[in-house]
Amino acid sequence: MSRCLSDRSIDHVVLERGEIAHSWRTERWDSLRLLTPNWQSRLPGYGYSGNDPDGYRTVPEVVEFISGYATAFAAPVQTHTTVVSVRRTEAGYLVRTDQGDWQCRALVIASGACNIADTPGCADRVPRSIATLTAQQYRNPGQLADGGVLVVGASSSGTQIANEIHRSGRPVTLAVGEHIRAPRMYRGKDLEWWMDVAGVLDERYDAVDDIGRARRVPSLQLAGTPDRSTLDLNALTDIGVRLVGRLAGITEDGKAQFAGSLRNMCALSDLKMGRLLDVIDAWARDNGLDGLVAPPHRLPPTHVEASPSLGIKLTDEIRTVIWATGYHPDYSWLDVPVLDRKGLIRHDGGVTESPGLYLMGMQFLRRRKSVLIDGAGDDARDLSAHLACFLAGDPCRALVPHFASQ
Amino acid sequence: MADVVNNGVNVEALISARDALTKAPEAAKFKWRAACEWKNGTHSHSTVEGFFGLGEEQRRKRTFKFDADHPEVFASEDVGATPVEYVLVGLASCLTAGIAAVAQHWQIQLRSVTATIEGDMDLQGILGIDNDVRNGFSGIKVKYKIDADAKREDIEALVAQSQKRSAVYDIVTNPTNVTVEVT
């Protein structure tokens, strides 16, 4: 966004609570790699220039990439500045920070979708002798006591964390709710390549049937595996991870109860993956790629044992519980009435009801790729155009929000 | 206390069955069944007849029939109770049967037992409006009125023991693996 505003000669400042790429520096586990390949971080006027376009960046490499971008166009970033509150004024917005106040006519909220780790309601029933960590606090298996680990959540974070903890010799039980299975490679190409060329990632927010649901879909169960292998539930079963159903509750005497829906959760995910691969195959056929890439194939169904465990006494076999159960944004500093009853910002493709207030970097904000680094460019181009109209006093009719339809 | 307690439960038969099944645990493995056929809209017709137990297929004298539907506020025909109401019926009748059996065993004469049962449900779950709202009941409340030859704490113990031994209470309070196949 800063780059797009600079291109439009719009005077602006970027406030950052810590260093550039703060959450990447402070809220990621050690082994994490970006879920998208290097070539796919295409930002306005910037991109990957190394010799490993198909690789996946490590966290330090992501930090370097984002910092490099800021340096490349001299982004006006004011670091170590924490926003304390934002409220409307007659002229726009008053932004109070721990480094003084700012007045602005327009404001873009790009503080992220993953500020606070979600934990289920039963989290406070975990017996005190058992350590608990969120995926945001987890760094590496060495942090954990020896012994069993319950990982709750089987999306991208949960599966990766379960994998490395189990390989460290701590037997992992993985509680699996809704998840989106995806092969890392398909027909010899990265899944992200297919989703990119087939237009899946460019699908617009106003073209999907139910945008509310699309925005709630869990992250693809992808991992930036250096060997480009698929880390799905079958891969975890193969190394001995025990799969159980969604964590339904914890009884007063410390028994974790797992839903009996594991089989259906896996069936739903297998079917959904099949539909995505069908879309890819149809696109490949229609675009003459058949014969040039590997032939279509389908992955074996997710293996579910005959009677998955429905409950374990936590103190008997678990030393650590890791919550990989999602995140929500933190808008505790936002005193502008744009939040819905779930505490999320109401918006139409990033344009809020409050004139001059914009949102970026959220799931399916304007396109399926909005939450990816690769999606920031198109969203910033669109929203900076709207913002420029707003500053010029032009009503931007084509982009006026239509909240009634949401 | 009445001289001869009779709640209509043949406890001797139950106890001898318990003894027999302790010696032959294979015979204790039962399979309960129902068949369901879609009629129209949300209306379905279910039947209950045979079951498996005591090592063999068991037949009944008659077939029990159940129509399930949704009420008119859901634009349905309302020709039967909703499936969730059948769950409430199952829980209440299971607990009530258990109260009678336990009372008989404990030599408590019952004069009347009535229950009301209510399940709270937020439709935002099944309608997919809010992912944080579960599909099923957020809670179930059962209220018993029991007239019996017993002190209040004995009646409370009776109701507690009935929950402890209830199949349906266990089914609704604990997870169950469910396998649904298309054949």
Total beta-strand segments of chain A: 21
Largest β-sheet summary of chain A: 5 strands, parallel
Molecular shape of chain A = globular
Instruction: Supply the number of helical segments of chain B.
Output: 4
Helix content of chain A: 25-40%
- SS content category of chain A: alpha/beta
| Content of β-strand of chain A | 15-25%
- Uncertain ranges of chain B: none
Describe the structure.
The complex is a heterodimer of chains A (406) and B (183). Chain A is α/β, with parallel strands linked by helices and 406 residues long. Helices cover 26% and strands 18% of the residues of chain A. Chain A has ten helices and 21 strands. Chain A is globular. The two termini of chain A are 25 Å apart. Mean pLDDT of chain A is 95; it is low at 400-406. In chain B, 31% of the residues lie in helices and 24% in strands. Chain B has 183 residues and is of the alpha+beta class. In chain B, helix 2 crosses helix 3 and helix 2 (83-105) packs across helix 4 (167-173). Chain B is built from four helices and seven strands; from the N terminus they run H-E-E-E-E-E-H-E-E-H-H. In chain B, the strands form three sheets. A three-stranded antiparallel β-sheet of chain B has the order 1-2-5, with no helix packed on it. A two-stranded antiparallel sheet of chain B has the order 3-4. Chain B has a two-stranded antiparallel sheet with strand order 6-7. The A-B interface holds A 210, 213, 216, 245, 248, 257-264, 307-308, 310-311, 342 and B 128, 130-132, 174-180.
In short:
The complex is a heterodimer of chains A (406) and B (183). Chain A is an alpha/beta fold.
Structure characteristics:
heterodimer, A: 406 residues, alpha/beta, five-stranded parallel sheet, three-stranded antiparallel sheet, disordered C terminus, B: 183 residues, alpha+beta, globular
